[in-house]
Design brief:
This protein is of the alpha+beta class. It is built from 3 helices and 3 strands, in the order αβββαα. A hairpin with a 5-residue loop joins β2 (49-64) and β3.
Protein backbone atom coordinates (compact mmCIF):
# COMPACT_ATOMS: atom_id res chain seq x y z
CA UNK A 1 0.00 0.00 0.00
CA UNK A 2 1.42 3.38 -0.94
CA UNK A 3 2.21 5.99 1.69
CA UNK A 4 -0.38 8.31 0.12
CA UNK A 5 -3.09 5.66 0.40
CA UNK A 6 -2.19 5.00 4.04
CA UNK A 7 -2.36 8.74 4.77
CA UNK A 8 -5.77 9.03 3.08
CA UNK A 9 -7.08 6.02 5.00
CA UNK A 10 -5.92 7.53 8.28
CA UNK A 11 -7.68 10.76 7.31
CA UNK A 12 -10.94 8.83 6.78
CA UNK A 13 -10.63 7.34 10.27
CA UNK A 14 -9.99 10.84 11.64
CA UNK A 15 -13.03 12.20 9.82
CA UNK A 16 -15.21 9.48 11.32
CA UNK A 17 -13.97 10.31 14.81
CA UNK A 18 -14.60 14.04 14.25
CA UNK A 19 -18.17 13.22 13.23
CA UNK A 20 -18.89 11.40 16.47
CA UNK A 21 -17.55 7.87 16.12
CA UNK A 22 -15.53 6.65 19.10
CA UNK A 23 -13.70 4.17 16.86
CA UNK A 24 -13.58 3.49 13.14
CA UNK A 25 -12.23 0.78 10.86
CA UNK A 26 -11.54 1.40 7.18
CA UNK A 27 -10.63 -1.34 4.73
CA UNK A 28 -9.35 -0.24 1.32
CA UNK A 29 -8.98 -2.52 -1.70
CA UNK A 30 -7.65 -1.01 -4.92
CA UNK A 31 -8.90 -2.91 -7.96
CA UNK A 32 -7.07 -2.53 -11.27
CA UNK A 33 -8.83 -4.08 -14.23
CA UNK A 34 -8.21 -4.30 -17.96
CA UNK A 35 -10.68 -5.05 -20.70
CA UNK A 36 -9.36 -6.20 -24.05
CA UNK A 37 -11.17 -5.97 -27.34
CA UNK A 38 -10.09 -6.91 -30.82
CA UNK A 39 -11.41 -6.39 -34.28
CA UNK A 40 -11.49 -9.14 -36.84
CA UNK A 41 -8.92 -9.40 -39.52
CA UNK A 42 -10.57 -9.02 -42.89
CA UNK A 43 -9.00 -9.64 -46.25
CA UNK A 44 -6.04 -7.34 -46.73
CA UNK A 45 -6.54 -5.47 -43.45
CA UNK A 46 -4.92 -5.97 -40.11
CA UNK A 47 -6.99 -6.26 -36.99
CA UNK A 48 -6.44 -4.17 -33.94
CA UNK A 49 -6.32 -4.97 -30.27
CA UNK A 50 -7.30 -2.34 -27.76
CA UNK A 51 -7.24 -2.33 -24.01
CA UNK A 52 -9.09 -0.21 -21.51
CA UNK A 53 -7.69 0.07 -18.02
CA UNK A 54 -9.79 1.04 -15.03
CA UNK A 55 -9.04 1.52 -11.36
CA UNK A 56 -11.66 1.47 -8.66
CA UNK A 57 -11.49 1.49 -4.89
CA UNK A 58 -13.59 -0.80 -2.69
CA UNK A 59 -14.15 0.77 0.73
CA UNK A 60 -15.56 -0.96 3.78
CA UNK A 61 -16.17 1.38 6.71
CA UNK A 62 -17.31 0.38 10.19
CA UNK A 63 -17.88 2.99 12.88
CA UNK A 64 -18.59 2.47 16.59
CA UNK A 65 -20.00 4.84 19.17
CA UNK A 66 -19.40 4.79 22.93
CA UNK A 67 -22.63 2.84 23.56
CA UNK A 68 -21.54 -0.11 21.42
CA UNK A 69 -23.71 0.76 18.45
CA UNK A 70 -22.09 0.32 15.08
CA UNK A 71 -22.79 0.88 11.42
CA UNK A 72 -21.13 -0.78 8.46
CA UNK A 73 -21.11 0.44 4.87
CA UNK A 74 -19.33 -0.83 1.77
CA UNK A 75 -19.05 0.85 -1.58
CA UNK A 76 -17.03 1.25 -4.75
CA UNK A 77 -15.62 4.72 -5.31
CA UNK A 78 -13.42 6.38 -7.90
CA UNK A 79 -11.20 8.03 -5.30
CA UNK A 80 -10.70 7.56 -1.59
CA UNK A 81 -11.83 11.17 -1.04
CA UNK A 82 -15.37 10.02 -1.90
CA UNK A 83 -15.32 7.95 1.31
CA UNK A 84 -16.66 10.89 3.33
CA UNK A 85 -20.19 10.16 2.08
CA UNK A 86 -19.81 6.54 3.17
CA UNK A 87 -18.69 7.68 6.63
CA UNK A 88 -21.85 9.76 6.99
CA UNK A 89 -23.95 6.76 5.97
CA UNK A 90 -22.14 4.47 8.45
CA UNK A 91 -22.64 6.97 11.28
CA UNK A 92 -26.35 7.23 10.42
CA UNK A 93 -26.63 3.44 10.59
CA UNK A 94 -24.82 3.42 13.94
CA UNK A 95 -27.15 6.07 15.34
CA UNK A 96 -30.18 4.02 14.25
CA UNK A 97 -28.82 0.73 15.66
CA UNK A 98 -29.64 -0.67 19.09
CA UNK A 99 -26.98 -0.26 21.76
CA UNK A 100 -24.98 -3.42 22.46
CA UNK A 101 -22.81 -3.79 25.52
CA UNK A 102 -20.37 -6.00 23.59
CA UNK A 103 -20.70 -4.12 20.29
CA UNK A 104 -17.38 -2.30 20.28
CA UNK A 105 -14.18 -3.90 19.01
CA UNK A 106 -12.23 -5.86 21.59
CA UNK A 107 -9.08 -4.55 23.18
CA UNK A 108 -5.81 -5.70 21.69
CA UNK A 109 -3.75 -7.91 23.94
CA UNK A 110 0.01 -8.27 23.97
CA UNK A 111 1.24 -11.29 22.09
CA UNK A 112 2.70 -14.13 24.10
CA UNK A 113 6.43 -14.74 23.89
CA UNK A 114 5.89 -18.51 23.80
CA UNK A 115 6.73 -20.22 20.54
CA UNK A 116 9.10 -17.45 19.47
CA UNK A 117 11.65 -18.23 16.76
CA UNK A 118 14.57 -16.21 15.47
CA UNK A 119 12.63 -14.65 12.55
CA UNK A 120 9.56 -13.77 14.60
CA UNK A 121 8.60 -10.07 14.38
CA UNK A 122 7.90 -10.02 18.14
CA UNK A 123 11.62 -10.55 18.80
CA UNK A 124 12.44 -6.83 19.04
CA UNK A 125 9.73 -6.22 21.68
CA UNK A 126 10.89 -8.87 24.13
CA UNK A 127 12.40 -7.75 27.41
CA UNK A 128 15.10 -9.64 29.28
CA UNK A 129 12.43 -11.08 31.63
CA UNK A 130 10.49 -12.37 28.60
CA UNK A 131 13.62 -14.07 27.27
CA UNK A 132 14.21 -15.80 30.61
CA UNK A 133 10.56 -16.93 30.72
CA UNK A 134 10.89 -18.49 27.26
CA UNK A 135 13.94 -20.47 28.38
CA UNK A 136 12.31 -21.74 31.57
Amino acid sequence: MSNELVRQTEELVGQAQKRGASQAEVSVTVVNSSQWSSSRISSGRKGSIESQNATSIDLAIRVFDKDGRYGTVTGVVDSIDAGAALIDEAISKANAAAAEQQGAPCERYDASGRGLNILDPRHARLTEEDRKEILS
